[in-house]
Write a structure and sequence with these properties.
Strand content: 15-25%
Bound molecules: adenosine-5'-triphosphate
Structural class: alpha/beta
Domain Helicase ATP-binding: 260-421
Catalytic activity: ATP + H2O = ADP + phosphate + H(+); Couples ATP hydrolysis with the unwinding of duplex DNA by translocating in the 3'-5' direction
Number of helices: 24
Low-confidence stretches: 610-614
Radius of gyration: 31 Å
GO molecular function, one term: DNA binding
Distance between the termini: 23 Å
CATH superfamily of the largest domain: P-loop containing nucleotide triphosphate hydrolases
Strand order of the largest sheet: 11-12-10-13-14-9-15
Protein name: ATP-dependent DNA helicase RecG
GO biological process, one term: DNA repair
Shape: globular
CATH class of the largest domain: Alpha Beta
CATH topology of the largest domain: Rossmann fold
Helix content: 40-55%
């Protein structure tokens, strides 16, 4: 990386650049314009009232002040001798230049020969003609200054810009070279310059990502894992003794995971399935196989509630076996923890279920062979590595309930194998979902009362408050109090929020599970995985504040058995887009479809949690819109790596990838 100080600017400006995450000359060049202003003579048409003209002032300027605000107006004439009245707000400093006969360029909107100008430049149009990049900048920076920095960065880096696309592929796809691409993205002369620049930059971004992922995968494949052998008859018996017949996709996923366990290559698999599609049972079969092979297994959940629930489910699945299971969470006493650590280190425990506590320093496994994490996006890459390093050659399975189409998953999680559960267990009825235009319970009180009267239980999800668990908790408490007051001694209302102690949460969840509580008022702490079969109604306050995948997750808490379930999405929002999203939830019950819609609206970073999971955020490319480029880049990356491994080709090029891998240690194993 080249020293940013070569820009020779002020300390203050360096600080502003730093807040823009720009700390090297390369960063300056990689800060692309987010849009372009195109300046050319433009007259309004039926669809657009935009106007850009060169004109001459033909009247004195009138100016009105209201406090610090101002409005100026004057008459102009263009070169067709057409006259316009021009108004511009808050630019009184221009007044001194606005003299009779001055020629200038006016940019704005025009209706009935009246222009409301957004900008006036005291220059002829010919001097402004062209495409002007507009950068996203922070306070203390100007567009002009930033453009100067880009120019300087170019002068310094000319001839030294590293390309991640081999020449052969530049020719194959008829791309321009990187230096030209970067130059054109910052200083385009035509629209085509921008197009060609983007073609290169998007391809390079994807190719580099795919090369990195594939390279890591190859490295991993070269490391030998443990080829686990076990009695398949015993595994079969276990599957037959399950309380239900596995769905086709569950069977396929199990087969894929078992093959991985048997193989001498380390497993690095991503198991994605819709909410309630039955991933837990798949993980338990896999854990059993690992146990039969003589190894310990660990199942890591994002919350204590979920860990406790997985623990209870596994205890149930394994009750007829000799498997010894333990629950390790932060809320155990020191004594209990120490006792557990002892047992784990002597292999007196076969399967440990828990939260982050599973990979604390003190936990030493006698022979850890398999790790499963639930809801991958809740864990950082570092944490996953820490747990994996607890065993020598640990197989690794990541489960996620935000499923995306297989082709996209394979490309996005390039270094992982992907198993997908699409089919739902038989007898599942889609949750009847209704968007209710209201901010209170009133319109659905009758339904709620009727439902409680037949012995059902209900979740009430409180508004999401960005970045404030405290306000969220307060709102949840108020709603719970109001509901308890309304139902007096008839029904019990429980309260669950992020600021409660883990034991308290656990107690409330157990009471709800046992139907000692009929209405559970909660923040999104119940979002993932909670499974209470008798609770088949959910009311979500301010539903417009949630992402669609999140609403689907929440809704997935009900309808987990064969009973008909209901979900009410309450919202008083008048935003057309918000209403459209909620109506979409009424119609769609397919997590794959919903996540795609959500990805389009909010982007992968928000939906899949890129930041934590180590997925890159692409600068110019868009995984959905540019998916065809991503696919091509993936195939090219495979060829390049293959050539590198078998014929020693692209050596210099792969060294570059290794260097960049080191810089970005997220990907290093
Ligand atoms: N093949 C099956 N037939 C019938 N019921 C099943 C089957 N597989 C799982 N189930 C039941 O479906 C429910 C959901 O299963 P599970 O909790 O494993 O789902 P999940 O995929 O982990 O969902 P979530 O992402 O919501 O946690 C459970 O109550 C489970 O007992």
């Amino acid at each position: 990386m080249t020293d940013i100080k070569l820009l020779k600017t002020t300390e203050k400006r360096y600080q502003v650049l730093e807040t823009m995450n720009i700390t090297s000359l390369e960063d300056v060049l990689n800060h692309y314009p987010y849009r372009y202003d195109i300046i050319e003579e433009t007259y309004p048409n039926d669809e657009d009232d935009k106007i850009i003209i060169e004109a001459t002032i033909i009247s004195p300027t009138k100016i009105f002040f209201k406090g610090k605000m101002s409005r100026m107006s004057f008459m102009v004439e263009d070169h067709y001798l057409h006259q316009y009245q021009v108004t511009i707000f808050n630019r009184h400093f221009l007044r001194q230049y606005l003299k009779m006969s001055t020629t200038m360029t006016i940019i704005g909107r025009c209706q009935n020969d009246k222009i409301t100008a957004t900008d006036i430049k005291i220059k002829p149009l010919s001097e402004l003609y062209g495409i002007h990049p507009i950068y996203s900048i922070k306070e203390g920076m100007t567009q002009k200054a930033f453009q100067q920095y880009v120019k300087k960065a170019f002068q310094h880096l000319k001839g030294q810009i590293i390309s991640y696309v081999p020449e052969e592929y530049i020719i194959k796809h008829q791309l321009i070279h990187k230096e030209s691409a970067l130059y054109n993205i910052h200083f385009p002369e035509t629209q085509n310059d921008i197009k060609q620049a983007l073609r290169y930059l998007k391809y390079e971004e994807f190719l580099k990502f795919q090369l990195t992922m594939q390279f890591i995968k190859q490295q991993r494949n070269q490391e030998t894992g443990i080829a686990k052998s076990f009695d398949t008859m015993k595994l079969q018996d276990f599957i037959l003794a399950l309380p239900y017949q596995l769905t086709k996709d569950q069977q396929t996923s199990i087969k894929e995971i078992i093959e991985d366990l048997k193989s001498s290559q380390m497993m690095y698999r991503f198991l994605q399935g819709d909410v309630g599609s039955g991933k837990t049972v798949v993980s338990s079969v896999a854990l059993y196989a690992n146990y039969l092979a003589g190894y310990q297994g660990a199942l890591m959940a994002p919350t204590e509630i979920l860990a406790a629930q997985h623990y209870a489910t596994l205890c149930d699945f394994f009750k007829a076996t000799d498997v010894k299971i333990a629950l390790l969470t932060g809320s155990l006493s020191m004594k209990e923890k120490n006792q557990l650590y002892e047992e784990i280190s002597h292999h007196e425990i076969d399967i440990v279920v828990g939260t982050h506590a599973l990979f604390q320093k003190k936990v030493e496994y006698a022979s850890l062979g398999f790790v499963i994490t639930d809801e991958q996006h809740r864990f950082g890459v570092e944490q996953r590595k820490a747990l994996k390093n607890k065993g020598k050659q640990v197989d690794f399975l990541i489960m996620s309930a935000t499923p995306i189409p297989r082709t996209l998953a394979i490309s996005m999680y390039g270094d992982m194998d992907v198993s997908t559960i699409k089919t739902m267990p038989v007898g599942r009825k889609p949750v009847i979902t209704k968007y209710i235009k209201s901010s209170s319970m009133k319109p659905i009180l009758k339904q709620l009362k009727d439902y409680l009267a037949i012995g059902g239980q209900c979740y009430v999800i409180c508004p999401l408050v960005e970045d404030s668990e405290a306000i969220e908790a307060k709102s949840a408490s108020q709603i719970a109090a109001a509901m308890q007051n309304y139902f007096k001694n008839q029904y019990q209302v429980g309260l669950l929020h992020g600021q409660m102690k883990d034991e308290e949460k656990e107690k409330i969840m157990q009471a709800f599970q046992k139907n000692e509580i009929q209405i559970l008022v909660s923040t999104t702490v119940v979002e993932v995985g909670v499974d209470v079969k008798n609770a088949n109604m959910m009311v979500i306050y301010n539903a417009e504040r949630f992402g669609m995948s999140q609403l689907h997750q929440l809704r997935g808490r009900v309808g987990r058995g064969s009973q008909q379930a209901y979900c009410y999405l309450m919202s008083s929002s008048t935003s057309k887009e918000a209403i459209e999203r909620l109506k979409y939830m009424e119609k769609s019950h397919d997590g794959f479809e919903i996540s795609m819609y959500d990805l389009q609206m909010r982007g992968p970073g928000e939906v899949l949690g890129n930041k934590q999971s180590g997925l890159p955020t692409f600068l110019v490319a868009d995984v959905l819109k540019d998916f065809p480029i991503l696919s091509v880049a993936r195939e090219d990356a495979m060829k390049i790596i293959d050539d590198y491994l078998h014929q020693g080709g692209y050596l210099h090029f792969m060294n570059q990838i290794k260097e960049s891998l080191k810089e970005n240690n997220q990907y290093v194993d």
